[in-house]
Write a structure and sequence with these properties.
The chain is mostly helical. The chain contains twelve helices and no strands. The chain has one domain: Mitochondrial carrier fold (Alpha/alpha barrel), CATH 1.50.40.
Length: 340
């Protein structure tokens, strides 16, 4: 023995801490996303069913029907896809968002300490993130919709399911019917939704964090007198509000996207987004159109459960993200000492 400490490059604490610091955005996003996705998935499943059902039904009654027909696993059908893929997509999304903000900072663009510059930086970075990530996330979300609506799609084909097909079987069926392009069914709507939704989300989040005392350096300062909450609650409040409001704004687009994808997966004739939106608002009978307000209310059916899901998912996401980031920031730095 030469008296020097030998270390394993994988398990050495100093190397591991350096790894966490270098990949902070990815580590924070992954760890936070696993928990928040699992917590909010049952509400997401109910939301998809509410968007596609043709008869009015309350959330509690729908939940009871799902439990009665499919059991507790009905709420988690297709969970492993978003649990694995969405978590990695979020990690990539946060990385692109963070790197884009670094570019703005390095080139001294929109760097004033004002809510306008802070919000625009977050919005542009979010749009870049949402646009790039949509190319990877579209197939996974289509399969998720396919799994969530197994019984609805089967009923539209006149089939009674005894046991729904698994995720791999769903992927094979989509590929068998429409080839690789079938995995990108409804991609244009998915691209627009993700780009606009992510831009609004990060614009609102960064703007609210600025209002509630976060500085451009990222440090959380004291909260304003008009909202005297503990600084540890700021990420949950801002994440919840930005998630709910941005989702409410793009919710009609998400409903149209889900309906277009449902028809395609069920093998029904194609119906464009504008026609789908018009039929949702005014009804299928042009000679007996429904009142506009009633149609809008139908589009926003399920918004309440979506709002609850957003509060749960995004509030937990940012709370855990900040907690993990704080933990990584306070890890001991490498201390290389020469030994005789």
């Amino acid at each position: 023995m030469d008296g020097k400490r030998t270390s394993n490059p994988v398990y050495d604490s100093e190397n591991f801490n350096d790894f966490l610091r270098r990949n902070k955005a990815v580590v924070c996003a992954l760890s936070a996303s696993y928990v928040s996705t699992f917590a909010g998935y049952p509400l997401d499943s109910i939301k998809s069913r509410l968007q596609t059902t043709k008869t009015r039904i309350s959330v509690p009654r729908l939940a009871v029907l799902v439990y009665r027909e499919e059991g507790i696993m009905g709420f988690y059908r297709g969970l492993w896809i978003p649990l694995m893929t969405i978590s990695f997509v979020r990690a990539a999304s946060f990385t692109i968002y963070s790197r884009t903000k670094e570019v703005f900072r390095n080139y001294d663009i929109l760097c004033r300490n004002s809510i306008v510059d802070v919000s625009l930086t977050g919005g542009i970075s979010g749009a870049m993130s949402g646009a790039l990530i949509s190319f990877c996330s579209a197939p996974f979300e289509l399969v998720k919709v396919r799994r969530q609506l197994e019984y609805t799609i089967a009923a539209s084909k006149g089939i009674t399911l005894q046991k729904p097909p698994g995720t791999l079987e769903a992927v094979k069926e989509i590929y068998r019917n429409n080839g690789f392009a079938g995995l990108y069914t409804g991609f244009r709507l998915h691209f627009i939704r993700d780009t606009a939704g992510t831009a609004l989300y990060f614009l609102e989040y960064d703007g609210m964090r600025h209002l509630l005392g976060r500085q451009r350096s990222g440090e959380q300062g004291p909260t304003p007198a008009w909202l005297p909450i503990h600084p540890s609650l700021v990420p949950f409040v801002c994440g919840s509000l930005s998630g709910v409001t941005s989702w409410a704004l793009i919710y009609p687009l998400d409903v149209v996207k889900t309906k277009v994808q449902q028809r395609a997966l069920a093998g029904e004739p194609y119906r464009g987004p504008l026609e789908t939106l018009h039929r949702l608002v005014r009804g299928p009978d042009p000679n007996n159109p429904k009142p506009v307000l009633a149609g809008i209310a139908r589009i926003y059916r399920g918004l309440g459960v979506s709002a609850l899901r957003s509060i749960t998912t995004h509030g937990l996401l940012w709370t855990l993200f900040d907690l993990t980031a704080h933990y990584i920031d306070n890890l001991p730095h490498s201390s290389i000492q020469d030994e005789p």
